[in-house]
Amino acid sequence: MSRSIEQARDYLRPTKRFPTVWCAGCGLGIVQSALVRAIARTGVLKNDVTVVSGIGCTGRLPAYVDFNTLHTTHGRALAFATGVKLARPSMSVIAVMGDGDALAIGGNHFVHACRRNIDMTAIVVNNCIYGMTGGQYSPTTPHGKRGTTAPYGNVEHAFDTAALAVGAGASFVARTSVYHAAEADKLIEKALRHKGFAVVEIISNCYTSYGRMNKYGSPVEMLRWMKESAVPVSAWEGLSEGEREGKFTRGVIAEKRLPEFIEAYDELGSRLTRTPAAVERVREILTAYDRGAGRLAAGFEDPEIDATERGESKR
Amino acid sequence: MADGQARVLQGNEACAIGALAAGVDFFAGYPITPSSEIAELMSQCMPLIGGRFIQMEDEIASIAAIIGASLAGATSMTATSGPGFSLMQENLGFACIAEVPCAIVNVMRAGPSTGLPTQAAQGDVQQARWGTHGDHSIIALAPSTVRECFELTIECVNIAERLRTPAVLLMDEVIGHMRESVVLPSGDEYDLTHRAAPEEGMEDYCPFGECDAEVAPLAAYGGEYRFHVTGLTHDAHGFPTMVPEEVDWKIRHIVGKLESRADQLASNEEFMTEDADVLLFAYGSTARVAKASVRALRDAGVKAGLLRVRTIWPFSQKRLRELAPRLRLVVVPELNLGQISGEVERAVCGETRVVPLGRVDGHLFVPDDITSFTLEEATS
Fold this sequence. Notes:
The structure holds two protein chains of two kinds.
Chain A lengths: L4 H6 L3 H4 L10 H15 L6 E5 L14 E4 L5 H11 L4 E7 H7 L1 H10 L4 E6 L2 E2 L5 E2 L23 H7 L4 E6 L3 H13 L4 E6 L3 H5 L7 H11 E3 H4 L4 H4 L3 E8 L5 H12 L3 H11 L3 H11 L6 H8 L1
Parallel strand pairs in A: 1-2, 1-3, 3-4, 4-8, 7-8, 9-10
Antiparallel strand pairs in A: 5-6, 7-10
Helix pairs in contact in A: 3-8, 5-6
Chain B lengths: L6 E4 H11 L4 E4 L6 H10 L6 E4 L3 H13 L4 E5 L1 H17 L3 E7 L16 H6 L8 E3 L4 H18 L2 E7 H5 L1 E4 L45 E3 L13 H16 L2 H4 L2 E4 L6 E5 L1 H16 L4 E6 L1 E3 L4 H6 L5 E6 L6 H8 L4 E6 L8 H13 L1
Parallel strand pairs in B: 2-3, 2-4, 4-5, 5-7, 6-7, 11-12, 11-14, 14-15
Antiparallel strand pairs in B: 1-8, 6-13, 10-12
Helix pairs in contact in B: 1-2, 1-6, 3-4, 10-13
């Protein structure tokens, strides 16, 4: 797949929104390019993609890409995305979030989204800091590292985002970094093709807020740190406890086949239409008004029509 | 009841049936007393009518999900009570600025905080108006009967769709849990409104444009229009702006499109107001009690009348202003400490005396509470 500027332009809103708000040296441009390339590879039409975000530097990403885009409140991207997906399951729904957005204020939404297994992709851009607000420590700031609210070093401990996602039940979990841009393309593509809730953590760099405070000489030095710290999943087992210190795995960390929420829900719907007791109960409720009875009846005309189709045709 | 038959229904049940009648096909909610029956009924019905129900992890997520679903073309609703309504304020503001139609049912209970989960109160009248930060306006309708729970749920959905705004159904615990005999309107007795769809091509589509009081058409995600929606103050195309003129227009627009329609949206019931010089101003369950008080006051020789509002927000001053010159007293009974009486006072501009009558002990008024208070005030 070509990485030409022309191709990227098809997926961006170049005349409207550029240049971006991101600082020079920020990893978000790499994430955005990887996302666009991954979507291009899946062949999904732009009209059929919704990109949802919360607040922060990552939250600004949807404005630049030419899809259905939704820039929501802090931490809530996945909750909004859930509604979008359930209302229109044919769409490919992607939530992009920073570490503070996804794991602090949005942590509860994150774990429940992992548990529900709705067919969506969550991209967590982890730069270990609150960049937009000026470098305060986040739930992924490593112990001892500095932030503007951890001026003497962070006394808290960081989440392992991928491990958290696995623990919460996500059916696809992968991690890479902005240094490994080509791998990011592939992992996002895999996540998009996965039927179920997929999490891709991308370790990124905020030179302006995190790098300078933690004595990285330049954005390049931060990329070098990623290059040296990321260990392929396959090689991790061979490392000793000591060798693992300060390092992280990259690649596909978990992948399993679990019943997908909407499939299961709609299956339930078509099963219920063949369950006289349930039908009777609901018919009783629905006969309370003409139109409701009509809607129920319409659903019964052909028991072969599954609930998805009924939902789609109605809208 | 399309058959014109009377049935005994609970307010919450009538609300859920109203939602189905209004075409709601997406419901997200979180359990909370005294509203849970609405979610339970929606969970029963949604899979059988091709809609979808989801129980979210909290009320923040519930309202987020219905906003997302609405943007993808669904007719969406959530239901909650005071503490959950507090959690929804953040994204209620999002729906206001992003102009996303959605219906929020709040079966009010006594607060603040956890308060009295299963007792009667009307404690969220001002929270509905001002609970989310920043300048905005809101729709809030208050039913007094089980039939009105049905009707005003439909009305909430209709207004939300027509004006691209969140609309709140401010029920209270008494109305939500009360059962009464009701004949629901048949399908030809109410109209359904759906948001306007854009007619121009995507390149010319302005999802947040149009002139001041008008409402721009709203496309659905997944159709032929790709557009951006943000909680940041945005221009006509939906992209963030800090241009003073554009920011000013946006905020005045979301306030003005509702406030300029306050009189048009107003829906009142009047009882014995023709010759009244003492007015009871009430809404929700309290208005039922106030009606009995009007009769008692008449028996006691006081020319009392009742003005009951179904539309609380935007607050229409029109009828109060018309009545004010011949009133010597307005009593405002509420199951709170005077949340709407300030609005009444503003409306009558000192032309008559306005006295709040609050009750916050978890119980509803009995007619004599209002009657004896009013008698005392009327003769003092």
